[in-house]
Structures are given as C-alpha cells and as structure tokens.
# Entry
Amino acid sequence: FPSHDNAGVSDMICAYTKKSESEILVAGYAFTSKKIADCLVEAHQRGVDVRGVFDAKNADMKSSKVRDLRLQGVPVRVNDHYAIMHNKFMVFDGKTVETGSFNYTQAAEKRNAENVMILEDYPSVALAYKTQWISLWNEASDLN
# Structure
C-alpha cells in the first residue's frame, strides 16, 4: 500500500491480530499507536503468544505504548545494539508478514508518506522474518 494517505493501516493491522490464532511477533522502532497496542493486548488476552522487541530509545519515550504492553502481560524487550533498531514488521502465525516503512504511530497513519506490505501465506518469507525477529529478541534486554 504505497500511499500518502495511510488511513486504515492500523485497522488493517488490527484485522490480522484478530485473525491470529497462535503467535504474533512484533519488531518496532516507534510504537505510539494506542489502537495497535490495544489489538495486540486483546490477542494476548485470548491466548495468542504476542511478543515484541522495540528500539530502546523510542521505547523509553513518554508517548511509547511499549510499557503499556508490558503492564498488560505482553512480553517485550528493548534492543540497543544498534544506533537505532529500525525494523518495522509483524509475523502472524508463522505464515503472514506485515512490513514496510510504517511505524506503529499515529503520525505514520495521518501525516507521513509510508509504505506497507502484507505477504499472506508465505511461510518461507515468514520464517526469514521470524529468524530475524529471534535474533533481535535474543540480543535485546528486558524493559527497565
């Protein structure tokens, strides 16, 4: 979805969280979207294994929803091994990937020129993203 109008991207991401049955892996740079955070928490509460790894500097910002995820029981870690941990992707149930330039923020949805790609039912692509996610998770630390 390359566009200057990203209205509805958060709804689209939430639709995938609602369809997920087993696992949602999140890698994010900036994460301030209450809507997406609420959808991830809802998935977690219905038994989906939701976990997130986020850029350490952004996760510590006042507007970040990373702490909210943790307070709701979603396992989160922060990665400070890079100048910025600039990944922005989600892996749903090991078969679908959401990726692109879209940060999980209101600014990305309302003000920025962004791109978003959903790769449905591509297990080999999802495995490559999951492998990258595991690497980011393993080198990350718990949120203070």
